[in-house]
Amino acid sequence: MIDPQQALAEQLPALSAQEALVEANRCLFCFDAPCTQACPTHIDVPRFIKKIATGNLLGSARTILESNLLGATCARVCPVEELCVGRCVLGAEHKPIAIGRLQRYATDFVYSRNIDVFSAGPPTGHKIAVIGAGPAGLSCAGELARRGHSVTVFEKRDLAGGLSTYGIIALREPVEAALAEVEMIRRLGVRFETGMELGRNLNIRDLQARFDAVFVAVGLGATPDMHIAGEEHLVDGLEYIEQSKLDPRHMKIGRHVAVIGAGNTAIDCATIAKRLGAERVVMIYRRSCHEMTAYDHEYEFVKKEGVEIRFLTQPRCVVAVDGAVNALECVRMSLGTEDASGRPTPQPIKGSEFVLSVDQVVKAIGQEMTAVASWLPLETEKGKIRVNDSFETSIPGIYAGGDCIRSKGAASTVMGVQDGKLAARAIHERLMPRGVTHG
Amino acid sequence: MADLRIDFAGIQSPNPFWLASAPPTNSGNQVHRAFEAGWGGAVWKTIGAPVLNVSNRYGAWHYGGQKMVGINNVELISDRPLDVNLREMAEVKRAWPDRAVIASAMVESKPEAWHDIVRRIEDTGADGIELNYGCPHGMSERGMGSAVGQVPEYCEQITRWVTEICRIPVIVKLTPNITNIIHPARAAIAAEADAISLINTLNSIVGVDLDTLAITPNIGGKGGHGGFAGPAVKPIALHMLSALGTDEVVSLSRIPISGMGGISTWQDAAEFLLLGASSLQVCTAVMHYGFRVIEDLCDGLSNWMDAKGFKTVGEVVGKSLPRISDFANFNLFFSAVARIDEHKCIKCNLCYVACNDAAHQCIDLAPGTTGERPQPRVREHDCVGCRLCYNVCPVEHCIEMAELPTERAPISWNELCQSQPEVSEDWEAMRRYREQNAIHVH
Questions:
Q1: What is the C-alpha R_g of chain A?
Q2: Within a domain: residue B426?
Q3: Are residues B124 and B146 part of one domain?
Q4: Which of A204, A305, A397, B214 yields a CA-CA distance of 20 to 30 A from B178?
């Protein structure tokens, strides 16, 4: 019997004190360090690492959280190879510093001891609503609370944390790590109202009336339909991950699983299927490895997990017998001319149809944007909410950040955290104009 | 394969490496195993007056992840009975006739006490005797160890008590806890010692425990100064060694010197030889890693000697001593500037911040091409050649100090003061001198 908790336990063990010390001492303490420049939240990486080396772990955690309130999540989920670690000067000829793992070591220190690094600022009397308790919302809420504002976070799900809680495979971030950060934000005085969703039981006009400012961080919506026959048999990838985190014992895992898509969510789904007992897992992607959106290190990881990947393959139809999936019909593709996104358009190769014998098909082809227009007359850009440099939307007093504004660049936790931080700054400046001292 | 054999004041040894008088030479069993590992000799842990030890004897200084950069101790001389030590010494010497076995001794400052211990040591067949005038703790309070080494007159008197009867070579071990090492060395020579060894340990407090506020090491709530040794003391030892080698009286006497103080690698060993030591003693490296370190000490030294064309240890000894000089004799027109190899540079910019904050502000960060890190670049005409950047650079051979050619004849401060004394006395004269010689002070 596979113990799902064990099978999906956090992949990298925490560094021991000795490992952390040795690694921290390797850091050169670069001046104007490239790791800090590469971090979207500009964590002073050499500073926090030197503090580990000197045994000042509280100071180290504070250095991290000053720039990035969700530093414990980012330590786990950030694509460090693409960011800080990828720019480490020791990467050229030696081994770059394991920045993510050191960051986790420092933040684990305060979370495991329930140390409150920050406290709420003196009350300003201002009230702010945050919609969505994902990384952007939490970051904004926490930063505002530190400045003394009264913050209420409205979250449609039962638990706060957004994708950190629900949507990232436990072997990268366990639920507990995400919820510890939520708890830290709560202890700053932030109130959480769960089960509250815009357009359902939450009205933005009411919020505007009740609060001095609103921050919208609703993330993305559902996975879009594929418009193929047998669509109803597709399992949603995000729900797949969610169940693996919150209720893995009742999870149904096929013997032969196909995962459609080649992004990081698809990789998480394929890993879950493999780890929880599937004999064969095949990822299916209609373009080639050059166009896939998964990070290189994730791709390498999933290959080592024993997952097969069929590039240039398009699913055509899910075949079910008596309601049970037993095959996925596919067609081979070739790459044609570049489309609007700058990527070559995949085109079916006639007569190349084939059938994959599978009993579960997971769809992980990215999320589409929530229908913003259904609840607000906000201006959009490429389907995402349009904001100005201060993260303010087309409606004064309503700010937005996180994946729901990410019209260019890849959506990521760390970008959301940075949005929330900067939006909090902008909201604070709007409510507390310079010259007015407070706190 | 270089010939590593030495003849030190008549004491033969297959290589120059001896264990220093310390915990690694506390017993016959240890010295046996050390000789099996390849050590050329051993200076037995000091025997002499009865003592009682305490526990928590060693405190170490760890730095930047490196354990035991230095170690201090409050351990006393051997606490094993005299007859046991002497019997084991005799056994070891019988079993290892080709190795150097040297007894270290420290007794009360009375001639009869010294006469007695010298005779008993001679009876063991030991090759020599080392007089411990260095121990800075415990024994010094009883008028022994560094209490002797710090007073040249005592040093001479007690050495004479030994040399007047001793038939085996006498080595006087000096304490570094003294303002000028020359004086006790000259005292030893005056008393007809056969050799000198240095340095013993340095007075030290190794640290304070930040949880308990107790001194490290904590001896029942108290702590105090102990003898400091290990890699951290090497530069001090090299200085004292070269001070003896360049002293007229000491060098004319041609007295052999056994060097020690932080020797951990064959490179350290070679440096001690080059500055005049003709036997080498090691302790902390063995306390850290065991007797097995002897293999690379010999192998590395031999390979280096082969590469440099030295056939015997004797050819190496003192080879760099003629290079030792004083500031007043350095060529004031010698000029070097830092040059950064931009292909090797990893752009950590440590040279930049060191130069900018702590030196002479002559390294700029040239903007990198898009997406690239800025490139540190030396403004050579402003570089004073301080060599700080060279020292902080983490990449081997990335920054070199390039010697600049000069047309000007060399002149030292001494020569300048003789020819133009006003330059050293008057800032206006100095200004003119600089102007004439285009000396630009940044």
A1: 23
A2: no
A3: yes
A4: B214
Q: Are residues B238 and B361 located together in one domain of the fold?
A: no
| Predicted complex ipTM | 0.84
Strands (E), A339-426: 344-348, 354-356, 360-363, 380-381, 384-385, 398-400
- Which of A30, A53, A90 is opposite residue B350, by nearest beta carbon? A30
Q: Which of B321, B337, B371 is the last residue of a domain?
A: B321
CA dist A178 → A152, A166, A175, A418, B21 (Å) = 19, 9, 5, 17, 59
Residue B440 lies in a domain: no
DSSP state for residue B90 in the 8-state scheme: H
Residue B430 is assigned to a structural domain of this protein = no
Q: Do A89 and B373 make contact, defined as CB atoms within 8 angstroms?
A: yes
What is the structure's pLDDT at B147? 86
Q: How many CB atoms are located within 10 Å of the residue B101 CB?
A: 27
Of B296, B321, B346, the one marking the end of a domain is B321
- Name the band, by pLDDT with cuts 50, 70 and 90, for residue B142: confident
**Which CATH number characterizes residue B407's domain?**
3.30.70.20
Q: Which two tokens stand for residue B125?
A: 């067949």
Are B247 and B185 in contact, with CB atoms under 8 Å apart? yes
In a domain, B362, yes or no: yes
Note the pLDDT tens digit of each residue in B380-414: 999 999 999 999 999 999 999 999 998 889 999 99
| Chain B residues close to A30, C-beta within 8 Å | 347-350
Residue B290 distance to chain A (closest CA, Å): 23
- Distance CA(B13)–CA(B96), nearest Å, equals 11
How many domains in chain B? 2
Please list, in sequence order, all residues whose beta carbon lies within 8 angstroms of the beta carbon of residue A89, skipping any fewer than 6 positions away. Answer: A28, A30, A34, B346, B347, B348, B373
Closest CA to A90 of B400, B341, B394, B398: B394
Whether B317 and B230 map to the same domain: the answer is yes
Same domain, B368 and B263: no
Residue B211's domain comprises 6-321
Same domain, B176 and B235: yes
Measuring CA to CA, how many Å separate A376 from each of A228, A381, A394, B161, B199?
32, 14, 11, 104, 83
Touching B: A residues 61-120, CB under 8 Å = 89-90, 92-93
A chain contacts of residue B353, beta-carbon cutoff 8 Å: 31
Residue B190 has pLDDT above 60, yes or no: yes
The answer on B337 and B229 residing in a single domain is no
